[in-house]
Amino acid sequence: MTPATARPAGIVLFAHGSRDPAWRAPIEAVARRVRELEPGVRVACAYLELTEPDLATAVAALLAEGVRAVAVWPMFLGAGRHAREDLPRLVEALRARHPAIAFSLGPAIGEHPGVVDAMARAALERPSV
Questions:
Q1: Per the domain annotation, does 2 fall within a domain?
Q2: Chain centre to alpha carbon of residue 56
């Protein structure tokens, strides 16, 4: 929080999910890095399917910590159906369930200019296979 009047904020990194437990590692690595960059921020991972917690559960955990504003970031490379349709519906349901909480929904993270730049720089490196 930067201004003294800012409400305690939380971040949800929202991903698709997978039956493979190792699939969670990159999303959880992003959450760890967020915490390293800003130790006071509350961050949770949430998944659409096949992995827990779901979005409502992750948000409930943040609210229990006193968070009053939640930024949801879709951890998708592009804005497919889940980012365009499913996730906005889930966020609207959360807004209806928690009217005192400010929810914001970011674009697919892969469309963020910093992410595009990072991927381009990584693609220029020789893979170590």
A1: no
A2: 13
With CA atoms as reference, report the closest residue to 46 among 82, 97, 100, 8.
82
How far, in Å, CA of 78 to CA of 3, rounded? 32
Query: How many structural domains does the chain have?
Result: 1
4-47, pLDDT tens digit by residue? 345 569 999 999 999 999 999 999 999 999 999 999 999 999 99
Taking the C-alpha atoms of residue 30 and residue 71, their distance in angstroms, rounded to an integer, is: 15
- 31 membership: H or E segment, kind and range: helix 25-37
Q: Is pLDDT larger for residue 7 or for residue 113?
A: 113
Q: Is 15 helix (H, G, I), strand (E, B) or coil?
A: strand
Within-domain flag for 128 = no
Q: Are 106 and 73 in contact (CB under 8 A)?
A: yes
What's the predicted TM-score (pTM) here? Answer: 0.88
